[in-house]
Amino acid sequence: MVKLVFSQSSSTLTSCVAAALVFATASVQFSEASEAGGNLPKLMLFSFDGFGWNYLQKLPKSSIPNFHKFIDSGVHVRWIENVFPTVTRTNHMSMVTGLYAESHGIVHNHFYDSALNASVPSPGNLTDSKWVDVGSEPIWVTNSKAGGNRRSGCILWPCADAKIKGILPEKQMPGEWTVTLETFNSTERIDLALKWLTDPSEEVNFVAVYFDQPDEISHQHGPDSEEVATAIRTYDKTLEYLLNQIEEKGLSGKLNVIITADHGQLPVRVENQVNIDSLVEREWFFSQPYLDRPRTMINMWPKQEGSHGWDPRYSINMYPFFIATGPAFKKGVRDAAPFRMVDIYPMMCHILGLEPAPNNGTLDNVRHILATDERSRSLTSYVGVTIGVIVAMLGVVAVVVILWKIRQGRNVSASYKRTFAKAGTWEDQRMQDGMVVLSDEEL
């Protein structure tokens, strides 16, 4: 019967395992270095103020072909549930933090803060951190904190003009609500955003761009007006320009683009106005009112044909739309299941490979529109290759060790047989020497 003798020493195997672990660590470090070296996922976030979800439904495809080019190349969610109150600053802050108004602190466009005993500046931008730095963390702060050559840019984005957690966007075009499309038009905004995304010295991987229309147009003329339809067709030309520039700058298949809005609007109709005559008893009126003395009217309410601010759960016209395209998104998905405004932040963190700050959003709510993004694909592939190499190395090591042990065992067996000729002595001596003996049947 053939006997194999194995020593309990495993220094060779330990050395090989250590080498495999060193290789795995080096592989991860190489992957991280590659990402920091310019392979970061890129994301552009567009928001059109006051662009209701139903605006796209009212216009024929032939009049807005570029909106539909984006939809065909990516995903379209007919509407998403925004945050109450449905106003600009509140929803733009919810979009980039994943928080509801009571958590991020921007409870309206203009409001009184009892803790500060002051009101939010109106009109004008918010450059004082005391108004916005109340515990929330916008996506540009999350991106900056992650390091690894990550940089963000914001163009006129509401509430991005003040430091939050001591951080401003690395690239910034300030002037929220003080810079309009008349003074800094759509193509100029796109040019600046793409310049930041392709700057070889200080390249950003995230940029947010704000457009102040069609909100004011809808206020003045109503959401169902021809003026609003004209504004939408103008933005379609803006998207055509964006598509051409993405192609020209070699960003096709690399840049993720999200196009959305903060809220929609409802028409203000005379028949829906409240007649106070029916609410107040006649005896509360003066029979002969008079003007005591002329006074200058400091404030007045302009006539409006459209408005917003209502709870979106009771007025679906408050909802905005959502379109996205790029390597992180599925292609050709129309009318995908709706989700919430606060789900956008964790989705953007997922796309950018960031650990999100605490938020009210849920990534699972948007997985149905997400493809496996480029970072996840490359990382999964690299990890798979690394594991395969490690397993192969360990297999080779195991074979070498077994063959070496077999040879050593045969040599030792022959030596012991010659030295201990008496029956039983050889096996007794092996046990005393602390060696393990395996028979053919045991192998």
From TrEMBL:
UniProt-listed InterPro entries: Alkaline_phosphatase_core_sf, Phosphodiest/P_Trfase
Domain of life: Eukaryota
Record's protein name: Uncharacterized protein
Keywords tagged on the record: Membrane, Transmembrane, Transmembrane helix
PANTHER family on file: ECTONUCLEOTIDE PYROPHOSPHATASE/PHOSPHODIESTERASE, ECTONUCLEOTIDE PYROPHOSPHATASE_PHOSPHODIESTERASE FAMILY MEMBER 7-LIKE
Pfam families named among the record's database cross-references: Phosphodiest
MF terms (GO), sorted A to Z: hydrolase activity
Organism of provenance: Batillaria attramentaria
Transmembrane segments: 382-404
Top-level taxonomy: Eukaryota, Metazoa, Spiralia, Lophotrochozoa, Mollusca
